Amino acid sequence: MAVHAHPDDEVISTGGILAKYSDEGVRTVVVTCTDGSQGFGPGGVLPGEPGHDLDALAAVRRRELNESCSLLGVSHLELLGYRDSGMMGWAGNQSPDAFWNAPLDEAAAALVALIERYEPQVVVTYDADSGGYGHPDHVQTHRVTMAALERTDLPSKVYFTARNRASAERMAEMRERLHLPPRRRPAGTEGSVRQTPAGIPESAITTVIDVNAVVDRKRAALEAHASQLSETVWVKVSKEDFAELFGQESFVRSRDRSGAAVPEDDLFAGL
Questions:
Q1: What is the DSSP string of 165-193?
Q2: What does the pLDDT look like over 139-192, one tens digit per residue?
Q3: 56: number of Cβ within 10 Å
């Protein structure tokens, strides 16, 4: 079970493992916490700008999420149903429906119900600040997931998504080489969230999964999220560079009842 904040997060950090394990006959479940409605509207407009419609964008992003999960072979897609909170400092943070403002007990209870329904052996989500990204919905996803896991011992292993610093720096180099502009932010909030997570030390990573066999499907799933990713490094790089960047997915093992040694190359090692 991969627990994510927005439509497109399921493929950015876990698309490879979802496709890989699906091919191996593992039941894969994606839980998406928000509707993605604070993303880019038509032509890249931001929330609050003319032409941005929260409900219309949420519908677009739901269709993109469905297509992405289909491409990745995801067995089950579940939505917690909260509004996207937007980046830190955005007006969307104040919405009573925003995930950032959701009562922790309420959201955790909804996730516990899904964990008890699907009984995953492995749960994947973000660390406390999403690898330095600090998006409110990613932070809340971590909080909700960890609160849910305190109420059930069903998963044997829990992982946080991760990218090492060398890989993060390589992605930044490719973005610069492609002359891709920084993503727009509302006036006065440009520095509120890091544009790209800086990555973590290689020594902190416990688990690296080779997903080269499914890397083309990961790219196709990224391209399915065209409303948000069509002008990003994730889909603009060459096929060769994409494989270099995304042929492996890395994680930090947070909890374990399997006894498997680390480093490991399989989320199901020891199970």
A1: HHHHHHHHHHHHHTTPPPPP--TT-TTSS
A2: 999 999 999 999 999 999 999 999 988 888 888 898 889 988 777 665 544 444
A3: 13
53-87 per-position pLDDT tens digit: 999 999 999 999 999 999 999 999 999 999 999 98
Instruction: Dump strand ranges (E) for 52-127.
Output: 76-82, 122-125
The 207-210 sheet, strands edge to edge: 76-82, 29-34, 2-4, 122-125, 157-162, 248-256, 207-210
143/36 Cα distance (integer angstroms)? 19
Do residues 34 and 85 lie in contact, with contact meaning Cβ atoms separated by under 8 Å? yes
Q: Tell me, yes or no, if the pTM score tops 0.85.
A: yes
Handedness of CA 171, 173, 169, 129 (dihedral sign): negative
How far, in Å, are 43, 175, 221 from residue 194 at the CA level?
Answer: 23, 15, 24
Task: State how far the alpha carbon of 6 is from the alpha carbons of 71, 80, 84, in Å.
Answer: 17, 11, 7
Nearest Cα to Cα of residue 54 among 90, 8, 92, 101: 92
